[in-house]
Amino acid sequence: MPAVNRRQFLVGSGVLGALGVLGASAITWDQLHDAASTSPLPAGSGILVVLTMYGGNDGINTVIPYADNAYHDARPELSYRPEEVLHLDGQLGLNPALKGMAQLWNRHQLAIVRGVGYPKPDHSHFRSMDIWQTGVPDEPSPTGWVGRWLDATGDDPLRAVNIGSVLPTLAIGAKHTASALDPSSTPLSAQLKTELAGLGAADPHDTATQGFVCSGYRSEQTVSQAFSSIETVGKAKAEPKAGGNPLATQLNLVSQCIKAGVPTRVYSVSLGGFDTHADERHTQEQLLGRLDEAVTAFLRDMSTHPRGRDVILLAYSEFGRRVTANASQGTDHGTAGPVFLAGSQVKGGFHGDEPSLTDLDNGDLKSTVDFRDIYHELLHRVVSTDPTPVLGPNRRDLGLIT
Questions:
Q1: What is the model's pLDDT at position 194?
Q2: Which segment of the chain is annotated as a signal peptide (predicted)?
């Protein structure tokens, strides 16, 4: 590999990514328990796992209004018959792929927040996801909601970790970012680590941007040491198998980190592919099946560990889909949709009003819950922080956490 000078290093993510340094590529598997033993997460500390479903999941075929004739009329071939649905009550049921989540519901460990959205919804994947991840619907924001929490509460790079080499917008603050941990990365050579460490040292001549890049790299080295000895549970368990479930791989790694006592309060994982403009039933059932398998296995694993009681999982997508099916047996970009919270501390059941399928906004559902109120409660009740510096004033808890 050619030598890297300081100017190239300070270019930022392009060079770092090519070197396998940005995010978790520098993480080895040798020293996790050393770091966890010196600064373990205190018992009883809430742990939030944020699961992003990229692509705009069709909430209407996820939490299905099977008893509503308007549902069947709008989707004569795409709708599910009542006998196909996993009934939650006399009106609504889960997609048949969500059998494990139906069991969580029966154990009162699944909260479904209905009709979640934001004012003046945007149908663009990029803009809508940006709104959800920044928590700022009114104007573009350079920082994410988790990033602003990091800015407000300190500089420990272990407080928030994204599983994967690319940080999502939600994890980026003005002063601090979450760290990224990539279980499939290849460790750097000792020589290159030494060279990069020197290039990442603080320099009084650096601009603010250059200092941010160097600070970020030094944080990644802290994370590298802290997460390195996850080998104690076997690196093979954290690596995806051919044809396996990528979300299960991510959540398995989160589970091992939690059990090891790593002082992380927020983890971020993701599953993509939900942009179902055609052949929706088959595609969405496959994706929801992966989500169900991964989430229920993760929570089952957590239930056997003392720290499992502290874990809350949030699952959301950037928007729902339109009520009426399109000509390709799919659905187009919509607005409001359901949000899931799971864990032993959630107040199981429905929250928020079910949007009408006939009283629409130009073919779209009208949202009944602002997503920022969900974030407010998670910050307040799970992460134990004041949500106002992150979300601004006039937000409230919804009673989602017992």
A1: 58
A2: none
pLDDT of 220: 55
Task: Summarize pLDDT for 178-237 with one digit per residue, the tens.
Answer: 888 876 655 545 554 555 555 556 666 666 555 555 555 555 555 555 665 554 444 444
Q: Cα(94)–Cα(343) distance, rounded to whole angstroms?
A: 18
In-domain check, residue 317: yes
Q: Specify whether 213 is located in the same domain as 154.
A: no
Same-domain status, 10 and 129: no
156 lies in some domain: yes
Give the span between the Cα atoms of 266 and 50, in whole angstroms: 7
Say if 307 falls within a structural domain.
Answer: yes
pLDDT score, position 364: 98
Segments in the chain below pLDDT 70: 1-37, 183-243
DSSP letter string over 62-94?
TEE-TT-HHHHHH-TTTSPPGGGSEESSSS-EE
Residue 130 has a pLDDT of 96
pLDDT at 203: 67
Asked if residue 227 lies in contact with residue 262, where contact means CB atoms within 8 angstroms, the answer is yes
Q: What is the dihedral of CA 188, 189, 191, 195, to 10 degrees?
A: -10
Give me the domain span that covers residue 124: 38-184+242-391
Cβ–Cβ < 8 Å for 104, 53: no
What is the spatial distance between Cα 164 and Cα 250, in angstroms, rounded to a whole number?
A: 8
8 A C-beta contact, residue 315 and residue 295: yes
Residue 398 belongs to a domain: no
Instruction: Identify whether residues 323 and 343 lie together within a single domain.
Output: yes
Confidence (pTM): 0.85
Query: Which run of H or E residues covers position 202?
Result: none
Nearest Cα residue to 263 out of 233, 301, 223: 223
Contacts of 38 (CB under 8 A, 6+ apart): none
Query: Are 13 and 57 part of one and the same domain?
Result: no
The reply to whether 272 and 340 lie within a common domain is yes
Q: 116 and 71 share a domain?
A: yes
